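Example 3.2
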Amino acid sequence: MSNQQPLPLGRRPTHRLYRVVGEGRSAIWTPIGAAWPNRDGMGFSVNCDMVPLNGRIVMRLITPREDAEVIGGQQ
């Protein structure tokens, strides 16, 4: 059984959320969720699979390269 909430029908995330620990090239980026713009364009809906206790949360626009890295299991 999954605790994940379903996305609104027909809406795909436009941004991915990451937990980032460290700085520069040695930083570790872990995908933790997704976000997509609200219909009125005034904010985002956010779906987090986990909430980190340390590090920082970074929201990045999803690009084809990010999709390939996450699907391939490489960061």
